[in-house]
From TrEMBL:
InterPro entries: Dimeric_a/b-barrel (IPR011008), Tscrpt_reg_AsnC/Lrp_C (IPR019887). Residues 6-76 form the Transcription regulator AsnC/Lrp ligand binding domain. This is Lrp/AsnC family transcriptional regulator.
C-alpha cells in the first residue's frame, strides 16, 4: 500500500466545494482544510505508485477550483500514540 500526502492550493471561493469533491474520490482517505502555505491537505492510499500517479493529476488536479498540487509519498508512519499504546498493554 502506498500513502501519499497531497498539498492542494484552491481558489478561495471554492475551498469547501473542492474539499468535498476531493474527499469523495476513491483512494482519498481524508481531506483537511488548514491555515498556512496550502488550502487543503489530502491523505491518499492506493495499491501502488501507478494508482497515485493516476489519482493526483487525473482526478484531484481536475477538481473545479484546484490551482496546484504538490505530492509527497510516505515511506513510514511514526506515532508516539502507537508506542504509548504498546507499552500500556497488560497495565
Amino acid at each position: 500500500m502506498v500513502t501519499a500526502i497531497v498539498l492542494i492550493d484552491v481558489e478561495a471561493d471554492r475551498i469547501q466545494e473542492a474539499a468535498q469533491a476531493i474527499a469523495d474520490l476513491p483512494g482519498v482517505d481524508q481531506v483537511w482544510s488548514c491555515a498556512g502555505d496550502v488550502d487543503l491537505i489530502a491523505i491518499t492510499s492506493a495499491a501502488g505508485h501507478e494508482e497515485i500517479a493516476a489519482l493526483v493529476p487525473g482526478h484531484i488536479s481536475k477538481v473545479d477550483g484546484v490551482i496546484r498540487t504538490v505530492t509527497h509519498i510516505a515511506f513510514r508512519s511514526y506515532s508516539g500514540r502507537d508506542t504509548d499504546d504498546a507499552f500500556s498493554i497488560g497495565s
